[in-house]
Amino acid sequence: MLTASDRRIVAALRFGLVSGICLLVLIIGLLLARAPASAQSQGQNVRLFAADPTTGTWTALQSGSAGGLSTGGYTPSNITTNATTVLKTGKGQLHCLTVNSVGTTSTATIYDNTAASGTKIGTATTVLAGQTNCYDIVFSTGLTVVTAGAAAADLTVGWR
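Above: the chain's sequence. Below: its structure in token form.
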């Protein structure tokens, strides 16, 4: 037989268990309600934010009409030939370099400059289709990409 004290303890445990389950269900419900796929299927905009290290501000990312995200300001530049390509003059941010299709022994050398010299950010070999090199770094003078090789790769550079 349970004493009055024991019954109070059992009641408190039951209450705590029920409260905990209710809280867990509430949290799961909130997470599901805020999930991008759920929101998009209901026609809602998904609000995500990204920090811009060049200005120190936050940029809103919006869901697109096809369910994709606009990047809130990155400019895509497609490079398909072996060349020296000046993408930007002045301060900015290099986000990524994506290999759309491979070249033959091809490379992409990236400079913080408005010419194919000066501060080298990096050299990427472009021999794997679908490869994305993420940099997310700032440059101060400009952004120049030099592509070289026996046959040029098809590249997309994301920057702002």
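The longest strand covers residues 92-101.
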